Request: fold
Amino acid sequence: MPALAYEVSGAGPPLLLIHGTMSSRGIWAPLRERLERERRLILVDLPGMGDSAVLPGRNVPADFVEIGRAH
Reply:
């Protein structure tokens, strides 16, 4: 399985931020500083987007489930 690119920052209860299609984890930049004050942020790049490798095959959201289970 290809690796997902991700970042973890901040402190507190975890909050997973998932970007929309054709985007990347950078989309959260305007909110990061404010959210990091109270939450531990986990930002991911979905497969084939941002810094994450392309999945073999179709690369549609249903395919992303399998890579998520591997982590």
Remarks:
- The longest strand covers residues 6-10.
- Residues 61-69 form the longest helix (9 residues).
